[in-house]
Amino acid sequence: QREVQRHPSFLSLLLHFARSEARGDAMPAASELIAQRDLNCLSDDNRQTRKRALSKLGALPGAGHAPDVLAPLWADVLQAPVLKLFADQVEKNRELAITLTADMLAALPDTAVVDTLMHVVPAIAVRIGGTPVAENAEELRLQLLKIVHALVPRCGAALSVYLPELVQILVGSFADAFPDAKKEGCAIA
């Protein structure tokens, strides 16, 4: 009961899929995609537990699920806890969270990606758009810039709302000591 209260959107997603199955839709049940335990493990105190959950959830985008199945799963269930893990103490967990985000965004339809911008862009700006830069791992800074680079052609004018954050991100990339991050920033600009 307490676990469902922490993630009420998971219950609504289960109800959505149950109704879909009752109508005979070809959508898989939510329980086939994600277990409540995996979702709860994302906020566990144990770093290994978080890592296992991220690794397991990392298989979702490449498993061949339809984008219209992944979109509500990302928006209603996974987005908040995964983006929160961008600031995890453990570098491997941050890497897995960033990779899961990039893979999910690549698998979602453009309209769902535009809807998630309000969460993704600020989360990236917090990690690589400030001074000093919060993300100390060079490769993770590069991965975050690659997410931004992928968003630009897909979202176009919808990104204009996030220009202050994007400017912060680009300024941070231009000042980055990692040459590949500088190159990626230039490619975005």
UniProtKB/TrEMBL annotation:
Every Dynein axonemal assembly factor 5 TPR repeats domain range: 41-188
Name of the featured protein: Dynein axonemal assembly factor 5 TPR repeats domain-containing protein
UniProt xrefs under InterPro entries: ARM-like (IPR011989), ARM-type_fold (IPR016024), DAAF5 (IPR052623), TPR_DAAF5 (IPR057978)
Lineage, broadest ranks: Eukaryota, Haptista, Haptophyta, Prymnesiophyceae, Prymnesiales
